[in-house]
Amino acid sequence: MTALRVWLSRLLGTLTGRRREDELREELETHLELLADEHRRRGLSDADARNAARRELGGIAQTREAFREARILPGLDALRQDLRFAWRALRRDRGTTVAAIALLTVGVSSTVVLADVVDRLLLRPPTHVDEPERVRRVYERRLDGDGRATLLGSNFVTIERLGAGISSEIEAIAAYQHERIGSGRGPDASRFVAIDFSDAYFDVLGIRPALGVLPSAHRAVDPGAVVISHALWMQRFGGAADVIGKPLRLGQQTHTIVAVAPRDFAGIDDDPVDVWVPLDARLRIEDWRTGTHYLGLRALVRLKPGVQRASVEAHASEVFNVVQRIDRPVGIDKDARILFGPLPPGQSPTSSMETQVVLAVAVVAGLVLLMACGNVANLLILTGLRRTAELALKAALGAGRGRLLREVFLQAVLLASVSGAAALALVVTVGTIVRRTFLPPTAATVAPMDARLVLLTVAICALVALLLGSVPALRLTSMRIMVPGKGVRATHPSRLLDTFVALQVALAVPLLVGTFLFAVSFWKIHHVDLGLDLGRVVVVKADMADDGRPTEQHVVHRRIQERLALLPGVAMTAVVQSTPMHGGVAKVFEVPGSARPTGPYSLPMMNAVDASYIDLMGMRVVAGRGLSDADNRAGAPPVVVVNEAVAKRFWPGASPIGRCIVIASRPCTQVVGIVAKASPWASARGGPADADIGQMLFPLEAFLDFNADRTVLVRTAGDPRAMLSRLRTEAQTSRGDLPYVDVFRLDDVLEFELKPLRLGWAIFLGLSALALVIAMAGLAVVTAHGVSRRTREMGIRLVLGAEPGDLVRLMARRTLIAMSIGLAVGAVLAYAGAGLLKTVLFGVEPGDPRIFAAATAVLLIVGGVAAWIPARRTGRIDPSAALRFE
Amino acid sequence: MTPPPSAEVPYGTLDLMVLKTLASLGPQHGYGIARRLEQVAEGALALNQGTIYPALLRLEQKGWIASEMGTSENNRRARFYSLTKTGQKQLVAETALWARTVDMMTRMLEPER
Questions:
Q1: Which of A285, A517, A542, B85 has the smallest number of Cβ neighbours within 10 A?
Q2: Per-residue pLDDT reduced to its tens digit, A152-205
């Protein structure tokens, strides 16, 4: 106890400066005076009294030294001194220091931001979940399929029986599904992101509510209950404590709030959840608990402690396959393997392209950091060269090698810490933007700055300090310290410098190759001909069925369409039955004189649309005509427009124009036109699905109701993003009694395919630009150093008749040779790395030689310029000045 | 008669002497403590008076004494030291220890019978 106390007060003494020592001086003076007074009283003369006092008190300097030693922690004090030295050294080379800090800040912050993204996407489970590693998402991998795992989509019976079969290994199993639920009518209508849950859902997650009691399988769950998110509680109810028991309208039902979810818990998936509702209240299927035809439910389990995932997976697969043979409809009872994937979405067995891109980008950010470190190490070596005399002097005065090493390392630590602090500031500001673009909303919004992030930064800075310190430290230990005054003799580190140049170039190659690969992919994917032009199409939809008025669908959407058609900036409008790209209807029909084709995708998707739909969607009529307004009237002769896939499949080798199909008891529906491609399930990547899936378009008013659904489509004249909220307000208020009207861009459905490429491209581009600047700076600095070191030699060469142009080439050559070696090494690195991006890229081979040639060319040009600019100085050397140059 | 030769302060005893001084005289500045030590020792102690300051600091770091700046009798600034509660306990403990040590040493050094 006492020892700790002493240590603490000494620590305090070291840190809190010298007031106590100043006071000691006063104390000692007082002491001296009092002693002298005493002697005077005894009759000594003034001078003698003072002398005697001094004698008795002893050496004041020694006392103060002893006092100081007792006051502080000696090791810490020496450290403080060394830090001050290191700081002074850094301040002396202010230019170098600023450059080094800037380089490191950029390197550290980009690495931290991207490592943080990886952490949040891949490693971090959702907040508040109790022992999250025991909570598992249930996936299935069909053994007859393409080997990919998908989230289990099943019925409640199967999930229940699966749970019962493995009840000795799991604590609970829960079923759930996602939904968006409208609430209220008219201008104030809103919409909630909902999870519909089975009784055990919260038992599996093990979260604690901020307020109220969460539903649990251990109690009867009231179908009228609802759990609201913390955010919704704050927005809607102002965080009122009496919210429990209050009503909340969802669709046609009024629910009672039973609990508020904890703060920062926004569900376990990408979309932040507003409300959790019992499945009972939402599934409009009578027998959802016992029936087998609804396959929309997902499952979550909580494993018992200590249960091995592999063994429970094997058991679960067995149970699942047995259960399936009983429960599932005939035809899809192929065996499957059940997988229990971890909770963080990025780690799912369905490892997405985005995950791959993020990993690639994080690795690349590490490369940029390495480049920055290499460059800073270069700078430190060069400043170190200028300091050889100083080091020699210190060594001569008795500073041990250890002390000198410590100073060098402290410099590195100082640089790393200052850059780390700056990086942290950048991480908070810039990082937020990166996180918003990269991460799903749930992960992006939670705690932008936390201990984990700070720890990450500190760890990376420590690594940087170690890297930075070891290079000059190694050089220092290899120096031979000579006779004082003659300086420290050390081999000139030109080879080391060249190595760093080569290294930087080598690291830049993969970056540039990656950038080009992503750029080409991005360009190509945007120029895939889908036979559609979706960029400016907006979907406007009011779910009247969920509002309990399915018969009003048509009237309501016509009304919305009329209203929106009047808006400036709206180029075209159409009412359709099924929202394109969102599923639809496929019905059996006959083609007189032709056998019904079999095999996958044999039934084309059917949609009933306004005549303007074909132009609105950017479809191209390649034969016959499109639909006309005359077709789109009740009583008009029935016609249909088909896409090429239908034409090829049902009338192979012949033109279908003017031919009949027989559908829904009408004798003949005439094919009047063919549109190019136009798959009803367009994928941004095209692919076999795009080529094979048929689509048939019938006029909406003239033809049959496949179902009662309706959607309004709008084509805007300009960027639709600017119009979304205007469109929504207009649509919502087109009648006073509408449920929430949903408005979104149609090409959002392609977004999941485009986003990884766009992100990869953007981040690779940004990092490459950084890398180029860093590499350029490194090359320029090294060349410039070479020029100034060899000024004298160049002067002699000039005097002896060398042409200035030759000298410039001579100076640039060395850098260029180092660069070429770097390029070769980098190309190998890039070739090895690019293969990892194979599945993400589109329309370009990772090893495409043209890409490598382009990347090399860019680096050669940039590097050449960087070497040439300082080398140019050689040509302007004045020989007489050069010979006097030291 | 020549005075007995003055001895160095035996190791470890200065702390005890300071504590005892503060216990009997109450708060004192450095000079007061040094004077008291010399009076008690009656010239038997060759105390370099400056050495009590690091000793005082160490005692303060241990929490046995406390100090604050004040004004001395000749109207100069000085630090006044006083015994803390812990210091009082420590004094009792150390006194007992000292007595036992002295007792033991006495028996050890007694002429053998």
A1: B85
A2: 888 888 899 999 999 999 999 999 999 888 888 888 888 899 999 999 999 999
Measured in degrees and rounded to the nearest 5, phi and psi for residue A593 equal 80, 10
Residues 6+ apart with CB under 8 A from A811: A783, A786, A787, A790, A794, A867, A870, A871, A874
- The tokens of A811 are what? 């100076």
ipTM for this model: 0.86
Which residues of B are less than 8 Å from A23 in CB distance? 69, 77, 79
List residues bridging with A745 in a β-sheet: A538
Our CA-based measurement puts residue A204 at a distance from the nearest CA of chain B, in whole angstroms, of 55
pLDDT of residue A628: 94
Whole-angstrom CA distances from A194 to A158, A175, A272, A584, A743 are: 23, 14, 9, 23, 18
Q: What gap in Å lies between CA A432 and CA A817, rounded to an integer?
A: 41
Dist CA A435 CA A444 (whole Å): 6
Contact present, A457 and A423 (Cβ < 8 Å): yes
pLDDT at A611 over 90: yes
DSSP string, A495-525: HHHHHHHHHHHHHHHHHHHHHHHHHHHHHHH
Q: How many CB pairs under 8 A join A and B?
A: 80
- Contact in structure between A133 and A125 (CB atoms under 8 Å): yes
Buried b (16+ CB within 10 A) or exposed e, A97-107: bebbbbbbbbb
Write phi, then psi, for A842 (nearest 5 degrees): -135, 125
d(CA A885, CA A787): 12
A514 near A841, Cβ under 8 Å? no
Q: pTM for the whole thing?
A: 0.70
Rounded Cα distance between A232 and A434, Å, is 26
| A125 CB burial (10 A radius; 0-12, 13-18, 19+) | middle
Q: Which residue in the set A31, A33, A70 is minimally distant from B57, CB to CB?
A: A70
Identify the pLDDT of residue B1.
39
Which single residue is written with the structure tokens 């040094």? B34
Cα separation values, A204 from A131, A134, A165, A177, Å = 10, 9, 17, 15
B53 reaches A (C-beta below 8 A): yes
Please compute the mean of the pLDDT values over residues A565-583 and round it to a whole number. 92
Provide mean pLDDT across the span A710-725. 94
